[in-house]
Specification:
By secondary structure, the protein is α/β, with parallel strands linked by helices. It has twelve helices and eight strands. The protein has two domains: 68 residues, no CATH class; 202 residues, Alpha-Beta Barrel (TIM Barrel). The strands form two sheets. Strands 1, 2, 3, 6, 7 and 8 form a six-stranded parallel β-sheet that branches. Strands 4-5 form a two-stranded parallel sheet.
């Protein structure tokens, strides 16, 4: 069964239920005509019921797009887009929905303002930081930790041509991040994000070295592409790709246009029933390699 047929049938159901409600209301206010109206309502409902084919689980599953994560050229953003386009995750609005706000490439001149917006909305985020930026903005690094957000690392070079020159090259860059962070804050973190995601650039040997060192690698399921978008485009993307999921890892960057829309974005996500959380050190990592990128994957 085609997706558009499913939509048509659902809309037909809604129309019939609406007619039924109108008939009941009319009967209540017009008792003398109740018998005639009641007969008419039964006739309408019977005709409508005949015209609708009952949906079963197999049809819904067949309608959902299959996720093919094995294509050689597919990036994490491609995988995330395909995953967020599926229709098998239940209703758009429900309780128990979770979204992780993750912010890459900082700290920067925008970090303190981002934290202020988070605090005003009583939410926390995860900051994936580049080594040179930590060195340039040490007070912002401290501010991230001080305000209860999670600090994560985003490499030294941010260059895939240098990260994978050997199986341990990426691991060594995150070790440097760790040293810089500890020097600034006295604390440590094992949460990391590879530049451009762990697919398709990261070799298995590099991934294994990171896992052996105890790092927790996080990709994303929703890329706002804010680095090339306006504030309005960022908001449109968030609305579009959170409409059919109840668990998402949202990727943003420390950019002027992102800061401008962040407050509105948070308010929208809360209105839609999302609980906004930071990644915790104890949380299970979610990335392409371990098959946990999407919450329904086991």
């Amino acid at each position: 069964m085609k997706y558009k047929d499913l939509i048509f049938k659902e809309k037909s159901k809604e129309k019939i239920l609406k007619i039924k409600e109108q008939v009941v209301n009319y009967i209540t206010n017009n008792k003398r005509k109740s018998k005639i109206i009641a007969s008419a309502s039964v006739f309408v409902l019977c005709i409508g019921s005949i015209s609708i084919i009952k949906l079963n689980s197999k049809e819904v599953i067949a309608c959902a797009k299959s996720r093919n994560t094995m294509l050689a050229g597919e990036t994490i953003t491609d995988i995330a887009f395909n995953g967020s386009s599926e229709i098998e995750k239940g209703p758009a609005k429900s309780y128990g929905k979770v979204i992780y706000l993750t912010i890459d490439d900082g700290p920067s001149a925008y970090t303190d303002e981002i934290i202020k917006i988070l605090n005003r909305n009583n939410v926390k985020a995860t900051f994936f930081m580049i080594n040179s930026n930590m060195e340039a903005y040490p007070e912002q690094v401290k501010n991230i930790v001080k305000n209860g957000n999670t600090a994560g690392f985003h490499s030294v070079t941010h260059d895939i041509h240098k990260l994978y020159t050997s199986p341990t090259a990426a691991k060594k860059e995150f070790d440097i991040n760790q040293e810089t962070f500890k020097k600034i804050t006295g604390e440590t973190s094992k949460i990391i994000r590879l530049p451009f995601g762990s697919k398709p650039y990261t070799p298995r040997s590099s991934y294994n070295a990171l896992m052996d060192a105890g790092y927790k690698l996080w990709d994303w399921t929703l890329d706002t592409e804010d680095w090339k978008s306006t504030s309005a485009q960022i908001m449109k993307s968030v609305k579009q790709h959170t409409n059919d999921t109840d668990n998402a890892v949202l990727l943003m960057h420390e950019r002027k246009q992102t800061v401008a829309i962040l407050d509105q974005m948070i308010k929208y996500l809360k209105k839609e029933g999302f609980e906004i959380l930071p990644i915790k050190q104890r949380d299970e990592q979610r990335n392409y390699w371990n098959g946990k990128l999407f919450s329904e994957e086991k």
